[in-house]
Amino acid sequence: MKAFAYERPATIQDAARLAAERPAARFIAGGTNLLDLMKLQIETPATLIDVNRLPLAEVTDTAEGGLRIGALVRNADLAAHPRVRQDYAVLAKALLAGASGQLRNKATTAGNLLQRTRCYYFYDTTKPCNKREPGSGCAAIGGFNRIMAVLGASESCIATNPSDMNVAMRVLDATVETVDPSGATRSIPMAEFHRLPGDTPQIETDLKPGELITAVTLPKPVGGVHLYRKVRDRASYAFATVSVAAIIAKGDGDRPKFAKLAFGGLAHKPWRVEAAETALIETGSADAAADRVLEGARGQGSNDFKIPLTRRTLRATVAEALRA
Amino acid sequence: MDMNQPIGATPLDGKLDGLVGRPIDRVDGRLKVTGRAPYAYETRDLKNPAYGFIVEAAIAKGRIRSLDTGAAKRAPGVLLVMTHETVPEQGEKKEQVWPQLQGPEIRFHGQPIAFVVAESFEQARAAAALVRADYDAQTPDASLRAAQATAHEPKAAQTPPDSKLGDFEGAFAAAPVTLDVEYTTPVQIHAQMEPHATIASWETGPDGDRLVLYTANQMLNRGQSSLAQVLKLKPENVRLVSHYIGGGFGSKLQPQPEATLAALASKTLKRPVKVALTRQQEFHVATHRTDTIQRIRLGADETGRLTAIAHESWSATALGDAFFETSANVTRSLYAGANRLTRHRLANLNVPIASAMRAPGEAVGQLAFECAMDELAERLKIDPIALRIRNEPEQDPEKQVPYSTRQLVACMEEGAKRFGWDKRAAAGTARDGRWRVGLGMSAAARLNPLMPSQASVRLNPDGTLTVRMAMTDIGTGTYTILAQIAGEMMGLPVERIRVEIGDTAYPKAAGSGGSFGAASAGSALYVACDNLRQALLRSAGMNPDGAVFSEGRALSGNRSETLASLAGAEGIEATGEIKPGAMKEKFSQYSYGAHFAEVGVDADTGEIRLRRMLGVFTGGRILNLKTARSQAIGGMTFGIGAALMEAAETDTRFGSFVNHDLAEYHVPVHADVPAIDAVFLPELDDKANPLKSKGLGELGICGAGAALANAVHNATGLRIRDYPLTLDKVLGGWAEQEGRAQRRT
Fold it and tell me: Does the model's pTM come out above 0.90?
């Protein structure tokens, strides 16, 4: 760990201002990912801006009937929130499928959005990694890549986004609220918040330097059956090999009235293909939906299994939703 | 005492309510849960330590061209940057303890290339990141599979690498039913909770240099002797202290590089130096369990009687190292069969140093062999337990001596009854909702060694007893069972026994490893107590015949004296020693057991989850039913890990382990270990040692994973021969099954 300056601003404006003034500054909230990365010198911030005392820890109803989740709301609290459990159960389920009790007590909503990949090679500073050191190459390609992406990957990077929460936020059409150092606010749809690696895998989100997440907003609940199916290598405390977040409402016969599907473990961002949802609604066939989801899917060797696994998991999830 | 004959009646016999065996709580439990049991890194006896951090080689094969330490030396707080150019002179390697920083050659990824010492841990770590190494790197040879054909016959360790009896090839060719299968097991990491850690203090004095190490070590006397050679000190001038150890699992059987480096830095700086490996460093700097390739050939007649048994194993270790995984050793003894061979081959590769881990040999050997037996049973269409019973030997088939005790059949039958083995359905037929369900079993066997060990006991004037020996407690319960043995022998409650272990200042002891700890150290203590009893009776002029020690008193004839009065004003001391003797050769000594597992395999995703598990074991006299059961369950949990998830993946392009942290190197978590139980059948082994106990520490892992793998086969009809059994292999198997079904239609 490199020496760093530490600031603990009291207001959102001060936090954003500090982030703009200080070079190589990083916000820290729960620190459940950032501190590990700092110990390995994968993250080397010159200044840590501790945002834990900012007034961003509330969950409030929105005028539109939705929910506004403060950036600092802890994962454990969010999963236990009555409205989340009642109206956005997929989010509660995804949160509880992630990490461990101790980590969920500490990890925050905004921090989870910014959780970095678990790519083994990203964590090994003796290996080339375009995400860690742009231009150095990608050791995961041609290596052991069991946990890597099968969709949306590039020649530069095949890493995945490891978050469970993000998959649920994506299927819920959440919006990320931010404030920048000038005080300007903006709303970023989840669809646009995370980026594909392209040739700049070090840039993972749409956030600008110094821009601070203040909240995540959920639209009015849509009803339906909420499921989060996480497939993993041990029963708890493991990242998803593949996960499916589904909100499905039963229609007439075998076809759902509506369906929303998002996938984790497949790509650099939560994966959602609206054509797949349409196909499912029109045909009632999970395989037809899987065909759309997996369009362009490409295995890297040790992760080839994710392609059939995604299909099987989607099939099972749709069947479960329609049975419910 | 040399264990040359069966022990006969002892004071531990015939006490139905005795202290030995009782499931008492750990005597050190309160200290541990209140944080008052200091581990090596936490001890404060050595004042004002500096902090070390290891710089690892970033390549697996080649040479350091240049090592730039300038920035590191100038970094805040830095006291020393030790490299191959500045390291003090060292002696020869002993066993697997290597002199450190011996030159620019790189033999494996993670090999220490520099040691940075600073005033604080954070300063040392930050400065270590500033050391710049330039390499002439070469492509490493890091694949066991690629080296399999050229692997060599290793030097005999405790046992010869090969064995042969009768004519295997002929019998195999003639057998009406045969099996020829290959199993693989991956690299595994010990993943003990407490990392390797040492505080070293090198003191120069008029009568030579002395070294004190507070270190996490399982076998202190062995460590003392190897470090003395490497550091060119007299063994008696090296003191190792290891009062509490947070798990070892074999990785602390000998000092690891951090201990040597801390000692050398302390010598240079004339100040205590402390260092702990990071979790990531544990994977490369410390030892691991090698991957193995195992070929098993079995020939049987139609009734399942084995006529030919061959078990061959290939393993790998670092260049210049001789350790090989003795996977096939247990096969020499486990089942009858007239024609047999075992063979071990070793490849020296650009991989870190392989060493003993959690039942070296048996653990991975039985992962393969006990599945092969299941395959043979399936081929013969007979029950797997029946197959094993059919091949129950009269005596040890290769050593050709009787077993001291062997209750494998009783363990299997008792387990079958308790577990509901008769409810096992045909392979691939049982369902519970989305889960395919299967039952599997496996035999368990683990060598029962006895090691030389010494102990001293001192009866104090207040009637309390102090036990001393250089034994260790690696979390297994040694403090507790030693207190129980001494208490039973002397008629004292455990509250009046003070067990002082973990220091080479005390009598030499076996240490903890190889399942020999409790038997060896406990037997030395037994002998010491027996000698103390005789000394006390003698000093009081009491008749030793029929003397009894009970409730703090010695009773003989019509005399009854308190121990406090017998101790006198000075107290009285006795010592004891145990050595293995003729019993080791005259009898084949193993602990036995049987594992039963029920697994569910998710029919959609191929995820495998254990549903319940039972182990039935015999280990001679059980010294503490609670700690024994905990040990057994811990071993079984290792088996769950080995079967389902544990694998350090080697990237052969780099010669390094890819998933080098506990986020991605998976060991079982609580949710992976549901209803699990271990029971012990009554047994006394009077050939093993004076306690009539046998080793239990590693028995629980032996065969455990095979029971799960066999259950997976029962659930799915799939036979996965490459451990661990992960969902991708299940999906691959199903895809093949479906492909075959389609081709048929």
Answer: yes
Of the candidates B223, B217, B287, B221, the one whose C-alpha atom is nearest the C-alpha of residue B247 is: B217
Q: Which two tokens stand for residue B250?
A: 């074999």
Whole-angstrom distance, CA of residue B279 vs CA of residue B283:
7
Q: Which of B153, B698, B736, B738 is catalytic?
A: B698
- Alpha-carbon distance of B73 to B230, in angstroms, equals 27
pLDDT value of position B67: 98
Give per-residue pLDDT as tens, A71-118. Answer: 999 999 999 999 999 999 999 999 999 999 999 999 999 999 999 999
- Report yes or no for ipTM above 0.85: yes
Active site residue B375: no
> B592-603: b or e for each residue (b if 16 or more CB lie within 10 Å)?
bbbbbbbbbbbb
Q: Which residues of chain B have pLDDT under 70?
A: 15-17
Strand (E) or helix (H) holding B224:
helix B220-231
CA angle B338/B343/B348 to nearest 5° reads 175
Q: Tell me, what's the pLDDT at B268?
A: 98
| Nearest CB partner across the interface for B726, out of A3, A233, A316 | A233
What is the rounded CA–CA span in Å between residue B365 and residue B330?
7
Quote the strand ranges of A82-183, DSSP E: 175-179
Q: Where does residue B440 rank: exposed (0-12), middle (13-18), buried (19+ CB within 10 A)?
A: buried
> What pLDDT was estimated at residue B157?
82
Q: How do residues B258-277 score in pLDDT, each as one tens digit? A: 999 999 999 999 999 999 99
Q: What is the pLDDT of residue A54?
A: 97
Distance in angstroms (rounded) separating the CA atoms of residues B585 and B558: 44
Considering only the beta carbons, identify the residue of B606, B664, B666 that sits closest to A118.
Answer: B664
DSSP state of B236: G
Residues in B closer than 8 angstroms to A2, CB to CB, are 126, 129
A239 contacts chain B (CB < 8 A): yes
Q: Is residue B344 within 8 Å of B326, Cβ to Cβ?
A: yes
A41 touches chain B (CB under 8 A): yes
Interface test with B, best of A41, A121, A233, A242 (most B CBs within 10 A): A233
Distance from CA of B142 to the nearest CA of A (A): 14
Half-sphere exposure of A84 (CA within 13 A, CB side): 25
Give Dmax (Cα) for chain A: 63
User: How do B208-215 and B339-349 pair as beta strands?
Assistant: unpaired
How far is residue B533's CA from residue A187's CA, in Å, rounded to a whole number? 83
The phi and psi torsions of B51 (rounded to 5 degrees) equal: -115, 135
Give the single-character DSSP code of A181: T
B391 contacts: CB under 8 Å, gap ≥ 6: B304, B305, B306, B335, B336, B337
The per-residue pLDDT of chain A, averaged, comes to 97
DSSP for B685-712, written as a single string: -TTT-TT-B---TTTTTTTHHHHHHHHH
- The predicted pLDDT at position B16 comes to 61
| DSSP secondary structure code for residue B387 in this structure | H
- Across the strands, what pairs with B133? B67
